[in-house]
């Protein structure tokens, strides 16, 4: 039985060979879609919005407002980061709907994003409060809580990363097993050349594991990132 | 096909961080910043337009009141001017009439003086003529009987009696 890990698409011939997985390739496709969309959608902005401009404005406005509502008016400069995170995670989580492996079903992706959030938490926390004020926060409410606080801070990116990864990879594995099972079942019916049972039945599971879970986990990841960063700054 | 482990950190980790940062920078530059700026500018423009319209309205209101005041003022002024002109004209006509009356009076006075002088002159002339006539008449009547002395005396007497009383006025 083949593993559920990311597949190596090709290997870069430097060092000992850097494997490029389908996670990275799918991310590139998603990036191309998002970048293409941004360039095309903002190319012909008119004074009176029409067509795609309405959708673009609504999208950016929603993301800006979400950031302001969650983080506060003074942290509106996070909107591009939060917006990018939201759009990327949304597309990545829904990537399973078109039959590819979700980039977020890879611990490297989720942990990478979680590390970025971790850096933002501590970077902006230090910047806003000063090094002394920031370090003093680790002794709150009592000095002997220091180890617990450090563990808590380190747990943040891990929990962020594994929550998303677990949900997505779980959905991915279940869908893979389901498709495999349905193929076998079709074979048992003598239809191994045409797995007819794969039509229809997986839709319900896609709805839950990809659509529902994907959107929900996107939202959770983004909201938690915002809350952690703004908490560190306030 | 080779597969990597399901839960292992590898090169993909760095790729994903770089990918995400690139995506962040590009989307920030091409999507979030321009669209947000565009929307903010539009909101500002609309706000400005509304404010300007409001300002213009107030300005128009002020101008309206101003012009209305001016119009009222002009009406008042017009009435005042007409009144002034009428008054001046009346004064002037009074003056002219008065001056004319004065002049007429002076002319009459002068005429009276002239008349008096003329009369005096005529009286004097007449006196002279009468004396001459009387002398002529007398000399005719008593040509031979009177000598030069009586003659002279008679004339003087005549003049004294007649001239002073009869021709006085």
UniProtKB/TrEMBL annotation, chain A:
<feature type="transmembrane region" description="Helical">
    <location>
        <begin position="189"/>
        <end position="209"/>
    </location>
</feature>
<feature type="transmembrane region" description="Helical">
    <location>
        <begin position="20"/>
        <end position="41"/>
    </location>
</feature>
<keyword id="KW-1133">Transmembrane helix</keyword>
<dbReference type="GO" id="GO:0042777">
    <property type="term" value="P:proton motive force-driven plasma membrane ATP synthesis"/>
</dbReference>
<feature type="transmembrane region" description="Helical">
    <location>
        <begin position="164"/>
        <end position="182"/>
    </location>
</feature>
<comment type="similarity">
    <text>Belongs to the ATPase A chain family.</text>
</comment>
<feature type="transmembrane region" description="Helical">
    <location>
        <begin position="76"/>
        <end position="95"/>
    </location>
</feature>
<dbReference type="InterPro" id="IPR023011">
    <property type="entry name" value="ATP_synth_F0_asu_AS"/>
</dbReference>
<dbReference type="InterPro" id="IPR035908">
    <property type="entry name" value="F0_ATP_A_sf"/>
</dbReference>
<keyword id="KW-0472">Membrane</keyword>
<dbReference type="GO" id="GO:0046933">
    <property type="term" value="F:proton-transporting ATP synthase activity, rotational mechanism"/>
</dbReference>
<keyword id="KW-0813">Transport</keyword>
<dbReference type="GO" id="GO:0045259">
    <property type="term" value="C:proton-transporting ATP synthase complex"/>
</dbReference>
<keyword id="KW-0375">Hydrogen ion transport</keyword>
<feature type="transmembrane region" description="Helical">
    <location>
        <begin position="215"/>
        <end position="233"/>
    </location>
</feature>
<dbReference type="InterPro" id="IPR045082">
    <property type="entry name" value="ATP_syn_F0_a_bact/chloroplast"/>
</dbReference>
<keyword id="KW-0812">Transmembrane</keyword>
<keyword id="KW-0066">ATP synthesis</keyword>
<keyword id="KW-1003">Cell membrane</keyword>
<keyword id="KW-0138">CF(0)</keyword>
<protein>
    <recommendedName>
        <fullName>ATP synthase subunit a</fullName>
    </recommendedName>
</protein>
<keyword id="KW-0406">Ion transport</keyword>
UniProtKB/TrEMBL annotation, chain B:
<dbReference type="GO" id="GO:0045259">
    <property type="term" value="C:proton-transporting ATP synthase complex"/>
</dbReference>
<dbReference type="GO" id="GO:0046933">
    <property type="term" value="F:proton-transporting ATP synthase activity, rotational mechanism"/>
</dbReference>
<feature type="transmembrane region" description="Helical">
    <location>
        <begin position="12"/>
        <end position="32"/>
    </location>
</feature>
<comment type="similarity">
    <text>Belongs to the ATPase B chain family.</text>
</comment>
<keyword id="KW-0472">Membrane</keyword>
<keyword id="KW-1003">Cell membrane</keyword>
<feature type="coiled-coil region">
    <location>
        <begin position="36"/>
        <end position="63"/>
    </location>
</feature>
<dbReference type="GO" id="GO:0012505">
    <property type="term" value="C:endomembrane system"/>
</dbReference>
<dbReference type="InterPro" id="IPR028987">
    <property type="entry name" value="ATP_synth_B-like_membr_sf"/>
</dbReference>
<comment type="function">
    <text>F(1)F(0) ATP synthase produces ATP from ADP in the presence of a proton or sodium gradient. F-type ATPases consist of two structural domains, F(1) containing the extramembraneous catalytic core and F(0) containing the membrane proton channel, linked together by a central stalk and a peripheral stalk. During catalysis, ATP synthesis in the catalytic domain of F(1) is coupled via a rotary mechanism of the central stalk subunits to proton translocation.</text>
</comment>
<keyword id="KW-0406">Ion transport</keyword>
<keyword id="KW-0813">Transport</keyword>
<dbReference type="InterPro" id="IPR050059">
    <property type="entry name" value="ATP_synthase_B_chain"/>
</dbReference>
<dbReference type="Pfam" id="PF00430">
    <property type="entry name" value="ATP-synt_B"/>
</dbReference>
<keyword id="KW-1133">Transmembrane helix</keyword>
<dbReference type="GO" id="GO:0005886">
    <property type="term" value="C:plasma membrane"/>
</dbReference>
<dbReference type="GO" id="GO:0046961">
    <property type="term" value="F:proton-transporting ATPase activity, rotational mechanism"/>
</dbReference>
<keyword id="KW-0375">Hydrogen ion transport</keyword>
<comment type="function">
    <text>Component of the F(0) channel, it forms part of the peripheral stalk, linking F(1) to F(0).</text>
</comment>
<dbReference type="InterPro" id="IPR002146">
    <property type="entry name" value="ATP_synth_b/b'su_bac/chlpt"/>
</dbReference>
<keyword id="KW-0812">Transmembrane</keyword>
<keyword id="KW-0138">CF(0)</keyword>
């Amino acid at each position: 039985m083949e593993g559920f890990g990311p597949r190596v698409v090709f290997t870069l011939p430097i060092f000992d060979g850097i494997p490029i997985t389908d996670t990275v390739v799918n991310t590139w496709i998603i990036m191309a879609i998002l970048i293409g969309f941004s360039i095309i959608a903002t190319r012909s902005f008119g004074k009176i919005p029409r067509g795609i401009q309405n959708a673009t404005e609504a999208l950016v406005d929603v993301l800006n407002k979400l950031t302001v509502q969650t983080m506060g008016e003074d942290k509106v400069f996070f909107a591009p980061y939060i917006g990018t995170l939201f759009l990327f995670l949304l597309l990545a989580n829904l990537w399973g709907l078109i039959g590819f492996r979700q980039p977020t079903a890879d611990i490297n992706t989720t942990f990478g994003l979680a590390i970025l959030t971790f850096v933002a938490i501590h970077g902006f926390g230090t910047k806003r409060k000063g090094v002394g004020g920031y370090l003093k926060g680790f002794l709150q409410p009592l000095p002997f809580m220091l180890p617990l606080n450090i563990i808590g801070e380190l747990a943040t990116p891990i929990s962020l990363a594994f929550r998303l990864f677990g949900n997505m990879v779980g959905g991915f594995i279940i869908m893979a097993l389901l498709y495999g099972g349905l193929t076998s079942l079709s074979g048992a019916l003598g239809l191994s050349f045409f797995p007819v049972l794969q039509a229809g039945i997986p839709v319900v599971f896609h709805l839950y594991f990809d659509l529902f879970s994907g959107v929900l986990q996107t939202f959770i990841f983004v909201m938690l990132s915002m809350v952690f960063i703004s908490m560190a700054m306030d | 096909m080779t597969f990597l482990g399901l839960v292992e950190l590898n090169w993909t980790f760095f790729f994903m961080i770089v990918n995400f940062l690139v995506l962040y920078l590009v989307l920030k530059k091409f999507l979030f910043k321009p669209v947000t700026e565009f929307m903010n500018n539009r909101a500002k423009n609309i706000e400005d337009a509304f404010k300007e319209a409001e300002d213009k309205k107030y300005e128009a209101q002020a101008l309206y009141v101003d012009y209305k005041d001016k119009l009222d003022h002009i009406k008042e002024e017009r009435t005042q001017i007409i009144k002034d002109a009428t008054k001046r004209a009346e004064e002037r006509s009074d003056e002219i009439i008065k001056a004319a009356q004065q002049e007429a009076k002076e002319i009459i006075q002068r005429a009276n003086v002239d008349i008096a002088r003329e009369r005096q002159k005529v009286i004097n002339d007449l006196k002279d003529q009468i004396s001459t006539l009387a002398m002529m008449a007398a000399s005719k009547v008593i040509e031979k009987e009177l000598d030069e002395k009586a003659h002279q005396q008679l004339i003087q007497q005549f003049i004294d009696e007649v001239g002073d009383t009869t021709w006085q006025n």
